[in-house]
Specification:
about 250 residues; alpha+beta; 2 domains; 5-stranded antiparallel beta sheet; two-stranded antiparallel sheet; about 15% strand
Length: about 250
């Protein structure tokens, strides 16, 4: 070890010793910022979210998954469907304005940002879901029940549409001996779909809500951040005071 390395080692020891001597000042700084962090958390509004997953399960042969997802979204945001559901759910805490995509201001219809909605349809890598920004279990149940109601409405709509499609084919081809293989295949596919729905198959499967998760504020992260700020502030203060002292 040369003399420069020795000097570096001595300097590091001196610095650490300096911080040790003034450790109470550093600890006081940490205590102050920790207290500020605690007060900050208590003034923040807690935000939670839960997810109600859904997926396309059974669709008529003349539709695809994209069409079914779009129809479910259209049915979900329909004020007519919501009012029909609420007639049999008077005790619900949900209001249509909680999920509505629009808001009327001074006679103008404007798009409502998702941040201002209680629940909305979205998707991620795991699939499609209804994001509910609440930890109110009654409200989560209402959202789940409404989504199930919408799924049942869509099933009835697709069943009616399939029956109409079947009637059209049967009317045009009363004598199936003249129908080609493609027509017969389509006829059988529609007939199988109707039979499956009548047995209980759903167009959209609705999953139970996930356990509400707090998204803001994050207590552990926030307190760790304030603690780190206090530690750095204390170290800077001690360093500044001591290194400014004349030799």
């Amino acid at each position: 070890m040369n003399k420069f390395e020795k000097n570096d080692e001595l300097d590091l020891i001196d610095i650490l010793n300096l911080f040790w001597i003034d450790k109470w000042k550093i600890m006081f700084s940490v205590a102050i910022t920790t207290l500020v962090g605690f007060i900050f958390l208590n003034f923040q509004k807690s935000e939670f979210e839960s997810k109600i997953g859904f997926k396309v399960e059974s669709i008529p042969p003349f539709y695809d998954h994209k069409k079914a997802s779009e129809d479910f979204e259209r049915f979900f945001y329909s004020i007519k469907n919501f009012k029909e559901w609420k007639l049999n759910n008077n005790s619900t805490e949900m209001e249509f304005q909680n999920i509505s995509e629009t808001v009327i201001i001074d006679g103008f219809v404007l798009f409502k940002d998702e941040k201002k909605r209680l629940a909305f349809l979205t998707s991620d890598k795991k699939g499609k879901h209804i994001l509910v920004k609440s930890n109110n279990l009654n409200l989560l149940k209402d959202c789940f029940d409404y989504a199930t109601f919408v799924s049942d409405l869509l099933k009835e709509d697709y069943l009616l549409r399939s029956q109409q499609e079947l009637n059209i084919i049967e009317t045009r081809f009363k004598d199936f001996s003249t129908a080609n293989d493609a027509i017969i295949t389509k006829l059988l596919a529609v007939d199988r779909y109707i039979a499956a729905v009548n047995k209980g198959y759903k167009v959209i499967g609705i999953f139970y809500p996930t356990l509400p998760k707090q998204t803001s504020p994050r207590p552990v992260f926030t307190m760790a951040l304030f603690l780190l700020i206090g530690l750095l502030a204390g170290i800077i203060y001690v360093s500044f005071r001591n290194f400014r002292k004349p030799d």
